[in-house]
Amino acid sequence: MPLVLVVSTVMIGMIMAIIDSTIVNVALDKMAGNLGASIDEIAWVATGYILSNVVVMPLNGWLTAVLGRRNFYAASIAIFTLASFLCGTANNVWLLVFYRIVQGIGGGALLPTAQAILFESFPRERRGQGMAMFGLAAMVGPALGPLLGGYLVQNYSWPLIFYINIPLGILGFLMTLAFIKDPEYIAKPERGADWFALTCMVVGISSLQYVLERGEHDDWFNSPLIISLTVLSVAGLVLFIYRELRDKHPFVDLSVFRSKAFALGNVIGIVTGFGLFGLNLVLPLFTQIVLGFDAWQTGLVLLPGAIATAISMPIAGNLVSRIDAGYWDIFWPRALSGFALGFIFVPLSTVQLWEIPQMKLANATGISTLLRQLGGSLGIAILTTLLVWKQKYTFADLTAAVTQSHYAVHALVQGAAKQSDAVRQLYQMLTENVNLISFNFLFRLSAIVFYASIPFAWLMPKVRPGGRPAVAAAQ
Predict the structure, then answer these.
(1) Residue 395: which H helix or E strand, with range?
(2) Residue 83 and residue 67: Cα distance in Å, rounded?
(3) Distance (Å, rounded) from C-alpha 16 to C-alpha 138?
(4) Alpha-carbon distance 135 to 109, whole Å?
(5) CB of 353 within 8 A of CB of 361?
(6) pLDDT tens-digit profile of 401-450?
């Protein structure tokens, strides 16, 4: 089967799933007004999708073995496409949330399955190019989602952000049946699912994701629900890991973490998710709150970074097949932001999966995608919490200096026609400065987090074309 047909088929599913994870963010206000929902209620349109996403991701290997790769990928696209149509027809918020949960079940499988297909479809010496194709969608998609969503919502109506998936989904489904084949090494599981372990995993991961998504909104551990779900997530995940490690035939094979490259790659992947998802939330907030941009203008702000990443991905894909993929390939891109995302993701994904046996590849990509998603959720949770804290702290700090004796305040009051006008102007100035200081704090903190991951990059093995990884420390 021509490689270009396989790549094209896989890219359709990936692009739909990734763009749809962010495209609704700029449409939430319009949805709330149209459906008569509160802000808290409409937020579940985004939260429900992510919750079902993360539950499916670690099951990728087991479901691939049960259904076969082609049938599993085709079914995922079919579920995603049908749910997209239903989302566009929803006439109340909770029906829309339900359809988004169904859509997330389909979308959660598309990304890790696509990564496994691309990695094994390319010859060993060209796997960097395969990861460049994967990274192109994984890194550029989150930036293009708000741009596309902003345009459609501003010029048309919000259901269109779901309806645009339908022709792509039908095409992707038919191409999957025609061009995606089941590898010979994929075999049916030797026994059925461990339902106790499965229940523990679903409860643990969904509870953790809820805490990360809604913790700041619910005032973290001042909320009994957040406390209960935190305990539930820890208990569920501990029991799940304990059960899987003792099982001779686990449905989520955690033995892939014995690969040093895979384990360290996931640490860096979590940090990358932190930056990608966290900053993709903070930057739009900065442009809209501080700079006063609308949804379309905000999308245009994100576009240059997406274009730069799209340019760097193919370059990195070719370089990784010619030179060692190790510390310096990841160190320098950390300092270059947008353009460097391609040089981070391609060597990282290539080295991370290099040692994984083919029969465990779908399992490994499911786990790594989940951890990258959780890293993103962690980034969003931390940055939004710190934003609120920094705004309160900075506002209190700045207002303490605002007295009648201050020359600037005195001049403002004297120059205003009314005292109320002076107070209004002063409050606006304070708010603008508070927001600017707070967002700058988040940008600097994100940079520190990225630099803190550099020691893990140092420990990553080096990969040479056609060879096996060699530990960098031994070189």
Answers:
(1) helix 361-400
(2) 21
(3) 11
(4) 16
(5) yes
(6) 666 555 565 566 666 656 666 667 777 777 888 888 888 888 788 778 77
- CA 338, CA 216: separation in Å to the nearest integer? 28
Cβ neighbors of 439 (< 8 A, separation 6 or more) are 282, 285, 286, 289, 290, 387
Rounded Cα gap, residues 286 and 293, in angstroms? 9
All residue ranges of the chain with pLDDT < 50 are 326-335, 469-475
Amino acid, res. 132? A
CA distance 118 to 115: 5
Handedness of CA 395, 397, 399, 402 (dihedral sign): negative
Helix (H, G, I), strand (E, B) or coil at 250: coil
Residues contacting 346, CB < 8 A, separation 6+: 128, 131, 132, 135, 313, 316, 317, 320
Tokens representing 322 are 């010619």
Instruction: Please tell me the predicted confidence (pLDDT) of residue 35.
Output: 86
pLDDT in tens, 198-231: 889 889 988 988 888 788 778 888 889 999 999 9
Q: Are residues 53 and 2 in contact, defined by beta-carbon separation less than 8 angstroms?
A: no
Phi, psi of 462 (to 5 degrees): -95, 145
Write out the two tokens for 211: 């805490």
Query: Can you tell me which residue has the tokens 């409050």?
Result: 427
Cross-strand pairs, 470: 462
Q: Looking at residue 218, what DSSP letter applies?
A: T
Which residue carries 């707070």 as its tokens?
A: 438
Cα–Cα distance measured from residue 9 to residue 180, given in angstroms and rounded to the nearest whole number: 8
Chain centre distance of CA 174: 27
Strand partners, 462: 470
Q: What residue has token string 């932001």?
A: 337
Give the integer Cα–Cα distance in Å for 443 and 460: 27
Check residue 175 and give its pLDDT: 92
The answer for 36, left when phi > 0, alpha when psi is -120 to 50, beta otherwise, is: left
Q: Could you tell me the pTM of the whole model?
A: 0.70
Per-residue confidence (pLDDT) for residue 313, from 0 to 100 = 55
